[in-house]
Structure formats: C-alpha cells, structure tokens
Amino acid sequence: EPEVTQTPSHQVTQMGQEVILRCVPISNHLYFYWYRQILGQKVEFLVSFYNNEISEKSEIFDDQFSVERPDGSNFTLKIRSTKLEDSAMYFCASSGPLAGRSDTQYFGPGTRLTVL
Amino acid sequence: AQTVTQSQPEMSVQEAETVTLSCTYDTSENNYYLFWYKQPPSRQMILVIRQEAYKQQNATENRFSVNFQKAAKSFSLKISDSQLGDTAMYFCAFMISGSARQLTFGSGTQLTVLP
Lengths: 116, 115
Fold this sequence. Notes:
By secondary structure, chain A is mainly beta. Helices cover 0% and strands 48% of the residues of chain A. In chain A, 36% of the residues are buried.
C-alpha cells in the first residue's frame, strides 16, 4: 500500500539555524500539506500546496517558513531561522486523486524537530 | 471559522467492550467531510474513518462506526470489541469540501484499552 514518507525522523538544531524537512507524498497525489503538533497539543495546519503554488496557509506560516516541490517526488518545508517555539512534530500529508477519495489526506510518520 | 470540540480528554475501556468517543463541530458550511484519526504512541497519524456530510448513512469500517447527526453537528466514534492495539489518541477533524483544504482538528481523546 502506498504511503507518505518523511525524513529525517528526528532533527535537532540550534536556535537560529535553518532546517529543511523532507517528504515524499504518495506518487499519484496532487495536493500536499504540512501540519505541526507541539507536544501535548492539537494538530495545527500550516500550509497546502497544489500545482507548484501555495493554496492555503495559516497564521503560523509566516515569512520564516517556505515550501517547495524541487522535483517530481519530494515536498519540502524550510524554516529559515529556527526558534525555540518551533520545536514540534511536523507532519506531511497528501491527497487525491486516488480511487475517488481526493479529499482524504494521508499522513506521513512525522519529523520531530527539537530546537536547542 | 470552523471549530471542533472533543470534550473527553481521557477515556478507558475494557478489552472486548464497546466505547464511544464524542465530537462536536461548528460550521456554517453545508458541504464538508468529517474524519477520525488515530495517533498511537509512535505519533503517526492514521486515518480511521471518514464521513461525507451529504451522506445520511453512517460510515463503518470493520469495528469502527460513526454516529453522524448533521443537525446537531455531532460526530461520535464507536469502537466495538476494543483491542489493546486501539490504545491511542483519537482526533476528530473537519474539512470543507474541495481540494487542498485544511483539516481542523479537535484537541483529542486519549483512549486506553485495559486488559
């Protein structure tokens, strides 16, 4: 069964450093998403991406964040200058078209980001 | 803006018993989807079940079923014959119909299945 993959599983960085989180969505999906979950809190939407453009973004997704689909398979989230409060689990997700369920988002296993 | 409320932070159930997790939501939209996701200790987000708002029939997936009450804006999850592997955090989520739309999650219910 196809699945979303994410690398690395755990990233430790110093405050102020840039990090890039990588995702490989399900191969025939067209829509891509990033979410984050601070420990013990609910999952929060960051951004959605379609046809090489951002479709929606939340207030969290400020100028420090950017997304890119550098090739036909990867989808990346870049944080330019990390802050302590960026420590969280970051989930990538993708959706449709797949068997008529284009609105169902499938999640990767997450990348735990720790900012020191 | 849409909101999703899960009023039960923690629940427990004996193995093989049935448990129901509650979820309510608020929206002015008419076309939308509702989901339950499961997050075990590994923290992976796993889709459990989905419901289209235009469908009156409640969705079922093996031991998992929902009670969708559109007028009451209620979307509860019933787990039958609970298994130890069902122990996880369960999140209710809402999405307006369309593509590349964001999911709005509730705060979650931690379910523990007791042996």
